[in-house]
Design goal:
One of its GO terms (cellular component) is membrane. The chain has helices spanning 9-20, 23-35, 39-67, 71-79, 84-116, 125-137, 141-158, 161-188, 193-201, 210-223, 230-235, 244-272, 283-293, 298-332, 336-356, 371-398, 400-408, 417-440. The chain is mainly α and 441 residues long.
Length: 441
């Protein structure tokens, strides 16, 4: 069977942006930025995104197209049998991420239900905080929604990702933008909101520590879907004559804009309602309902907001599932249905302790972190950057000519930046990421 391809360049860009833009940009970014002092974090994050981020994005897409194969196969074909290990690590990372990602994806479904039921329409911070904490720490309710989210993800992957995802992304990504703009405008008119904007944009470098830098790097990898093979897999579906640098630049730009918009959407409201900006994972789920409660037709906006959060999460989850599924199909010659169902069941099971670690199992910790936090930390802050270093080394030293050929396609410029990219892959990325990683451990 001929390998699937994207229908158009725009479709590819929006599908890749769909993978990138997800809970990372909309849910994680605002609270991680707040925990790390706002503006200074933003600058460091943007610094990583537009240097390492864009280079890694191009390298992954180029590797995927050159090898015409998903993660493990791509590393094996291009690098040799030992390099296949990096591909295996990527598949494992995809597996680990989706197991806790699906728990949060489930929260978005639950919040759609709670918005429809009117349960969370309140402007009282204490009430909303209580509802959220009560919900995520309850032993059974989040598991039900976790299962529902995983089932939805499997459903999309089974239905065929290219046409399904591509068309879905083309329709829903623009809708996401519009909704965010509406909510930002409303949020900015709340009394006290401008303090939040100032907090978000004013860099306070006294707050910068080793942790800030590691968190920024980890979040950059996580929110751009880098270092684990998703962009390799998506790149393998790109047509021969599509420009990779141009597409990668769009994906990085769109994702960064959504991160900024998410900060502007959540933080002003946090200040207006007197929440603690370093409140953590609950930030989006607690503060946004408070904004809705103040809006005319707020309940409708709440439903729409959580639907869009679900959609953002779903297009990302599908790319994670595709990495794991295509691996089982290619390596074990499984049928797509079998592969997807088997993997989804296993990931569901691992998600159970992750979810319970936010409630009844919170006393079980390793390195001071519960299962949920451990999965999140190990993947974003350790394994994805490590995958990035290894990919950079392979691209820069071993297969640079093949990468260069892919990047030159459809690019009109005299390719002045190609030597800079080679230098980044060879020295800068490994040194910089390596330094941050070693300091972090
Ligand atoms: N980028 C996605 C997000 O921000 C998460 C993700 C990571 C998706 C890795 C695919 C691969 O939500």
């Amino acid at each position: 069977m001929a390998r699937s391809q994207w229908g158009s360049r725009l479709g590819f860009i929006l599908a890749a942006a769909g993978s990138a833009i997800g809970l990372g940009a909309i849910w994680k970014f605002p609270y991680v930025a707040s925990q790390n002092g706002g503006g200074a974090f933003l600058l460091i994050f943007i610094g990583f995104v537009f240097t390492l981020g864009i280079v890694m994005m191009m390298a992954e897409m180029a590797l995927g197209r050159a090898a015409h194969s998903s993660a493990v196969g791509a590393f094996r074909k291009m690098g040799g049998k030992h390099w296949a290990l990096v591909g295996y690590m990527g598949v494992l990372v995809g597996f680990l991420i989706l197991s806790f990602y699906s728990v949060v994806g489930g929260w978005t479904i639950a919040y759609i239900a709670k918005s429809i039921g009117g349960e969370i329409i309140s402007s009282d911070a204490k009430v909303l905080g209580g509802i959220f904490t009560g919900f995520i720490s309850s032993p059974s309710e989040p598991l039900f929604y976790h299962a529902a989210f995983m089932a939805l993800t499997v459903g999309v992957v089974l239905g065929g990702v290219q046409k399904g995802i591509e068309n879905l992304s083309k329709f829903l990504m623009p809708a996401l933008f519009v909704m965010m703009l509406v909510l930002i405008v409303r949020g900015l008119f709340l009394p006290g909101a401008l303090d939040g904007v100032a907090y978000f944009l004013d860099p306070d470098f006294s707050k910068v520590s080793a942790k800030t830098i590691i968190d920024a790097l980890g979040l950059a990898f996580f929110s751009l879907s880098l270092g684990m093979g998703a962009m390799i897999t998506y790149g393998s579906y790109v047509e021969k004559d599509t420009s990779i640098p141009g597409s990668a630049a769009w994906v990085v730009l769109l994702t960064t804009v959504v991160c900024l918009l998410a900060g502007l959407m959540v933080l002003p409201a946090v200040f207006a309602f007197g929440f603690d900006p370093s409140a953590g994972p609950g930030l989006t789920f607690i503060t946004m309902p408070a904004v809705f409660a103040k809006m005319v037709g707020g309940q409708l906006f709440a439903v729409v907001f959580f639907v869009l959060l679900l959609v953002a999460a779903l297009t990302s989850a599908v790319s994670l599932m595709e990495v794991v599924t295509s691996f089982m199909i290619d390596e074990f010659h499984m049928r797509r249905v079998q592969a997807a169902l088997l993997m989804a069941s296993l990931m569901f099971v691992l998600g159970v302790p992750a979810s319970l670690s936010l409630g009844i199992w919170s006393e079980y910790t390793l390195f001071g972190k519960g299962v949920f936090d451990l999965l999140d930390y190990a993947t974003s802050n350790v394994l994805m950057p490590l995958g990035g270093v290894l990919l950079a080394l392979l691209a820069g030293w071993k297969i640079w000519p093949q990468i260069e050929v892919q990047l030159a396609v459809g690019t009109r410029s005299s390719a002045l930046w190609l030597p800079a990219m080679k230098l980044t892959c060879r020295y800068i990325a490994p040194a910089l990421i390596g330094f941050v990683l070693v300091n972090g451990l």
